[in-house]
Design brief:
By secondary structure, the protein is mainly alpha-helical. 49% of the residues lie in helices and 0% in strands. It starts with a helix and ends in a 23-residue tail after the last helix.
């Protein structure tokens, strides 16, 4: 049973990598920021869901409190 689950997870992630490649996230671009990394990681984790309409996106805004002046 463990081998089957492991195989399913590996196939799931491989499909996610293919989707990320098709969307152009795995290019040789040196400008990597929070949004690009997050979108790539979520696309890979979403796996086959990318092919049924999922389009995961990351919002990297940081709403940290600012110091008083």
């Amino acid at each position: 049973m463990r081998k089957l689950i492991g195989l399913v997870v590996i196939v799931w992630l491989v499909i996610g990598v293919l989707a990320a490649f098709q969307r152009g996230y795995l290019t040789n671009d040196q400008d990597v920021n929070c949004k690009k990394f997050g979108d790539t990681a979520l696309t890979i984790v979403a796996g086959p869901l990318n092919y049924v309409g999922a389009n995961p996106k990351v919002d990297c805004r940081i709403d940290a409190p600012q110091p008083s002046s």
